[in-house]
């Protein structure tokens, strides 16, 4: 399996490696910062063309910039503290960029974005001098998926190109009207994986005005992946308000939310014919 860095469409190889990266970002130091050396070793053990990992850690937000021979990838880490973002004033939308985004998710993204993007810009200058620009991917699981979404919106806002976004078990991140603007620009290169009953994907509630973006890849109970979850599943999502209360969420106990479950399903998908 390999990454096709110049295609914006969904590919199984791209999905696998983005899930693999989203899993690796959880490798951390005793202080909970990204373990740059550990992450790089983990990735290079499977693909020696990974070059460097740069980490960012501020407040409760962590992210990395990965340099591969063929592409750049911004990867954002989920956190058990996501419950706090959903359970207080941070859950309300704030107006930034081209619309309204979840305040807590936007703040977490801001905490780590600038140093990583500045590091990328330095690398881009080297790419340009070499006549070989490398494209950008963005990935994340849980809160990290929400942060990847806000980061993609930042790039859209300044018309900076990126190849695609892959998220796993992410919560809703922006209001419906903002989601319509986002989807008009990037729906077909945003791939949002949802594992069966992962309730994190159902918060914040639609009743608060929030909406998902991109193309949903639904992982059914049998671990098969579907790109059209159908009206029945959408109905279940609509009536699932009883589990949308943020106070009911404990990330260490939520069935179907673990990143390894997403990665295992995508590995199985890659073994299927066709």
Automatic annotation (TrEMBL):
Superkingdom per UniProt: Bacteria
Q: Provide the GO biological process annotations.
A: lipid metabolic process
Q: Return the SUPFAM superfamilies for the record.
A: alpha/beta-Hydrolases
Domain named Fungal lipase-type: which ranges? 74-206
Q: What is this protein called?
A: Lipase (Class 3)
Native source species: Thiocapsa rosea
């Amino acid at each position: 399996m390999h990454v096709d860095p110049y295609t914006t469409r969904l590919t199984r190889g791209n999905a696998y490696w983005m899930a693999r990266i989203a899993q690796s970002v959880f490798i951390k130091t005793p202080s909970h910062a990204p373990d740059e050396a550990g992450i790089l070793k983990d990735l290079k053990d499977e693909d020696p063309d990974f070059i460097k990992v740069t980490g960012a850690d501020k407040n409760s937000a962590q992210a990395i910039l990965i340099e591969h021979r063929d592409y750049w990838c911004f990867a954002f880490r989920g956190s058990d503290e996501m419950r706090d973002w959903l359970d207080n004033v941070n859950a309300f939308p704030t107006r930034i960029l081209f619309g309204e985004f979840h305040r807590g998710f936007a703040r977490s993204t801001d905490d780590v974005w600038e140093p990583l993007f500045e590091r990328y810009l330095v690398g881009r200058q080297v790419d340009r001098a070499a006549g070989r620009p490398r494209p950008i991917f963005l990935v994340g699981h849980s809160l990290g998926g929400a942060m990847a979404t806000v980061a993609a919106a930042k790039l859209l806002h300044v018309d900076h190109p990126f190849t695609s976004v892959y998220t796993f078990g992410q919560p809703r991140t922006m209001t419906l009207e903002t989601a319509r603007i986002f989807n008009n620009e990037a729906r077909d290169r945003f791939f949002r994986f949802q594992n069966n009953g992962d309730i994190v994907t159902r918060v914040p509630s639609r009743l608060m005005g929030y909406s998902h973006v991109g193309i949903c890849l639904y992982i059914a109970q049998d671990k098969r992946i579907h790109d059209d979850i159908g009206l029945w599943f959408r109905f279940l999502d609509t009536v699932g308000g009883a589990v949308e209360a943020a106070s009911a969420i404990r990330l260490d106990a939520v069935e179907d939310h673990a990143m390894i479950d997403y990665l295992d399903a995508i590995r199985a998908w890659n073994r299927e014919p066709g």
